[in-house]
Amino acid sequence: MSGAAELPLFVAIPVAILLVLGAGLSLAGSIGLLRLKSFYERVHAPTIGTSYGLGSVLLASMIFFSVLQTRLVVHEVLIGILVVVTTPVTLMLVTRAALHRDRLEGNPEVPPPLSRPPEQD
Amino acid sequence: MSRRLLRWVLPHPILSAWLWLMWLLLEQSARPGPLLVGLVVALLGGRAMAMLQPQRVRIRRPGLILKLAGAVLVDVARSNLAVALVVLKPRPERHAGFIRVPLALRNPNALAALACIMTATPGTAWVEFDVEDGELLLHVLDLVDEADWVRIVKDRYEQPLLEIFQ
Lengths: 121, 166
What we know:
Largest sheet of chain B: 3 strands, antiparallel
Order of helices and strands of chain A: HHHH
Structural class of chain A: mainly alpha
Order of helices and strands of chain B: HHHHEHEEH
CATH class of the largest domain in chain B: Alpha Beta
Strand content of chain B: 5-15%
Oligomer: heterodimer
Number of strands of chain B: 3
Number of strands of chain A: 0
Strand content of chain A: under 5%
């Protein structure tokens, strides 16, 4: 990155910490995706990457470019907002598809449908 | 007359303001060109939203949004660490499970906000919501006490959302 060497130390250190933290959290999420046993457990793991994993890297980016370009660079906030708003859509789609299939197959570990079956008189 | 015109041009002022701000952030400038194009995009966005005829969003306590956002930030951070620990140092006694939370929340916007909160929190996943019974099915990665989780969802998130939206 051009100009990265000009970054003052007191900015470089927090940026580096945030980057390592974000990368570490995302890595933990990826390991979880590999390690956790059931589908419903695995759904949780990547969320680390899309919450604070993402947030740390975005914050590092904002500080880095704001200092280097000596102006406020905050458009990364949009990435954060869009990810937070759109993740539930895909996550629900995937979980409900899995739930539907498990119920059809009669998997005992999955709770029955929420709405009570229509009552017969 | 002029009020009706304003209503037509700007049916959703807050949405249009956000769209404009988003456009300027993406352009990273406030020169006249981007300002003008952004304004057109914002107005078209508002018109398009009006054509979809969504339920009007009424926010009753804007100050509470900040408080809720703060609580969510803290909870998500805590949950990040907890899930990272579960992944890196597995405990044999940990068990995951489904829980049911009876919700009083019915406003679609409030429910969407709750879904964003539950999904952004690594330890919990929104699985299913029954509109008729108002029952929410959640999956919790580290389930210790079911009643505890129900209380957290109801007190920490549902209550503020009820006050904000309904």
